[in-house]
Amino acid sequence: NAGVTQTPKFQVLKTGQSMTLQCAQDMNHNSMYWYRQDPGMGLRLIYYSASEGTTDKGEVPNGYNVSRLNKREFSLRLESAAPSQTSVYFCASIQPGVGEQYFGPGTRLTVT
Amino acid sequence: AQSVAQPEDQVNVAEGNPLTVKCTYSVSGNPYLFWYVQYPNRGLQFLLKYITGDNLVKGSYGFEAEFNKSQTSFHLKKPSALVSDSALYFCAVRDMGGTGRRALTFGSGTRLQVQP
After folding, report:
1. pLDDT digit string (tens) for A73-93?
2. What DSSP string describes B57-113?
3. Whether B51 contacts chain A with CB within 8 A
4. Are A93 and A1 in contact (CB under 8 A)?
């Protein structure tokens, strides 16, 4: 049981380049999330997917798109990276009911 | 809108002493509260949660948290700190709005440094 996995672990992009961050969970969870972590700001929600086939915006969606490929996988795409998107990105999933969220190890992204 | 405040950027404590990491929250309705820990270059690990019931919640690694509804607080505590407890701690409240969202709103984090 790997839990929540993310690829890549590290990435450096130039301004204007695009990339996709991958996330997968093997816990059969319905809901999945993308957060970004910036110093002194905690984690902020970018997008979420309450169930397979649905996605919705969080607090900071601008500059991002997501795809819920199937129940296991939820990807985050940066179409045209900007230095303001330099951050650590975490994927999470949640079990039904009032359970806690499970987080992946994170992707550290630097945009120059 | 709901919010979480962690008033201390850093807490320093000597090994063996008790520790407290503070958290206050603002929600409409009953809160679902969580504490997570993050070690360097790692993801967030769940420590404990308050949903309902006993105001003193026990969690992983000897941590506990006290829910106080009148003070809207959910402070994290441990009776005897270890050097290995040094990490970044986040308090969070579950989003209760909207169908299926169930996202977390996080505080800004508190860095705990335990000195030997």
Report:
1. 999 999 999 999 999 999 999
2. EE-GGG-EEEEETTTTEEEEEESS--GGG-EEEEEEEE--SSTT---EEE---EEEE
3. yes
4. no
Whole-number average pLDDT of chain B: 92
Instruction: Give me the sign of the Cα torsion angle B16, B41, B9, B91.
Output: negative
Task: Pick from A101, A102, A107, A108 the residue to mutate for testing the B interface (most B CBs within 10 Å).
Answer: A101
Reduce the DSSP state of residue A1 to 3 states and report it. coil
The tens digit of pLDDT for each residue in A27-86 reads 999 999 999 999 888 899 999 999 899 999 999 999 999 999 899 999 999 999 999 999
A78 forms beta bridges with A19, A64
B46 touches chain A (CB under 8 A): yes
The answer to whether the CB of B107 falls within 8 A of the CB of A42 is: yes
